[in-house]
Amino acid sequence: MHRRDFIKQSSLASVATLLPVTGFTLENKPKFKMGLQLFTIRDAMKTDPLGSLKKAKAMGYQDLEIYGFDPENIGYYGYKAKEFKQILDDLNLTTTSGHYDFSSYFDKPEDELKKYLDACIEGAHMLNKPYITWPWLAPEFRTIENYKVLSGKLNWMAEHVNSAGLGFAYHNHDFEFTDHNGQIGYDIILQETDPKLVKLQMDMYWVMHSSKKTPQELITEQPGRYVMWHIKDMDKVTQDYTELGNGSINYAAMLSNIDQDALQYYYIEQGSNFAQNSMKSIADSAEFFKKNLKQYL
User: Fold this and answer.
1) What is the pTM of this model?
2) Which residues of 175-211 are buried (b: 16+ CB within 10 A; e: fewer)?
3) How many domains does the chain divide into?
4) Half-sphere exposure of 275 (CA within 13 A, CB side)
């Protein structure tokens, strides 16, 4: 044990002896950092990335999932990857996953996709980011046959990413749950990808919105695969996105009863439909989460 860690643990033990038994328990310490998908504040990140990150940090967000990538310069938000990493370090923020534009390479030669993927891997290593995530499939590719093609791509891409020491995941929306004459795209992805290679990022909003199964059921059926979650609420009337606590998803009931064994990271997200603006929405969602849901994670 390093001297620094010994001192830290000794100090905690000393404090614990001064507290009531109920005042110092493992349950009081969150298991996961409070995460934010930066796509939520993409407008603010475009105009003032540094200021936006500082504000998010002040709201209690500790971990980030990024979106957008400049493969030519290996950069994010106008910064080279090393510069962006320094910004995160200075703010004591981490990034653990990123959404990348793989869909644009879906119908291009495999060597072009691999070149882009290699750039993503390089950027991820610079940020010390453990996961690369496929986030989206363009509408023109959403056929049953293409879900089979996608599954093949996910397998070899995951193997390539894993060989570089990183994890690879697929993120769902609603379209994967569309019924194509009795066939469901998401079922094909689950069945035809290697669970040891291709992990899953569950968007709980879209599962509740579009799937016939609940998040709990999907997680139970695919043990060890759902390593990341997106947490966002659903408007009670329109079923659009909304701030946490304003919608119809009972996250307290869900999070208190769901299997978390595979979970490594979660990210609060709201794609649009902000009550005022994106920064106010992530502030409101953070406040609700800390008061009502963080105890479960």
Assistant:
1) 0.90
2) bbbeeeeeebbbebbbeebeeebbbbbbbbbbbbbbb
3) 1
4) 15
- Rounded Cα distance, 68 and 98, in Å: 8
Extended strands (E) in the chain: 35-37, 63-67, 75-76, 79-80, 94-99, 131-134, 167-171, 179-180, 183-184, 198-203, 226-231, 233-234, 241-242, 265-268
User: What is the reported pLDDT for 9?
Assistant: 43
* Residue 9 covered by a domain: no
The pair of structure tokens assigned to 51 is 């200021």
pLDDT given for residue 69 in this prediction: 97
136 phi/psi in degrees, rounded to 5 = -165, 145
Give domain status of residue 288, yes or no: yes
Tell me how far apart the alpha carbons of residues 266 and 241 are, in angstroms, rounded to a whole number.
17
CB atoms within 10 A of CB 296: 17
The whole domain housing 209 covers: 31-296
User: In the chain, which stretches have pLDDT less than 70?
Assistant: 1-29
97, part of any domain? yes
Written as one letter, the residue type at 68 is: G
Instruction: Answer yes or no: is 8 within a domain.
Output: no
